[in-house]
């Protein structure tokens, strides 16, 4: 319980610092949201009215207080570009984000775990070097580059998967999820492969592993 309390005490200032940083970055960026919404041809009176409605005419401490109160109420304000509540936009995108996260994780585990295990069991061989090189390439390649190459190959050239959209039926959703999951999973697979290789090598160096081998157990049993 004491450990949990200490952790919570560390989380609060971290979250507060992140909120302050986000707030200040948004205020430091050039441009006036009222002018962005109304256009440069708007009258000063109309701009002043909209600034008052948006609350950007108040002092920074007052703006931050309103921002913090909104965050505590899960009210993230309005999107100036889409003219919709940010909370609603996040809620609408959450199912697709979770599906993409799950798909990328499954791809990463399916590639990274066997690759890392094989590299550790064949340490110092061509398989180890090939797996390490592949993991390095996977980590180094940006996700958007992998995604673009996958789109060009499987969507535009071979027309196997859709180029955009999430689909409406379960089959369409799965087809639309394949390429983004692979693009995300390739990056994560490099990380998973390196971690798996290190873990397996550490396990193979333990005393009980050496004892099992000394007793004549087969490598598969070890």
Describe, in plain words, how this protein is organized in 3D.
With 222 residues, this protein is mainly alpha-helical. The chain folds into two domains: 2-75, no CATH class; 90-214, no CATH class. The chain is built from nine helices and two strands. The protein has helices spanning 2-28, 33-38, 44-54, 60-72, 86-121, 126-140, 143-157, 170-204, 207-214; strands at 78-79, 84-85. β1 (78-79) and β2 form a beta hairpin.
Strand content: under 5%
- Spans with pLDDT under 50 lasting ≥5 residues? none
- Judged by helices, strands and strand pairing, the structural class is mainly alpha
- Calculate the terminal CA-CA distance, rounded to whole Å: 40 Å
| Share of residues in helices | over 70%
* Total beta strand runs: 2
> How do the strands of the widest beta sheet line up side by side?
1-2
Report the principal-axis shape.
Answer: elongated
Q: Report the C-alpha radius of gyration, rounded.
A: 26 Å
How many structurally independent domains?
A: 2
Helix and strand string, N-terminal first? HHHHEEHHHHH
Indicate the mean pLDDT: 87
Largest sheet: 2 strands, antiparallel
Number of helices: 9
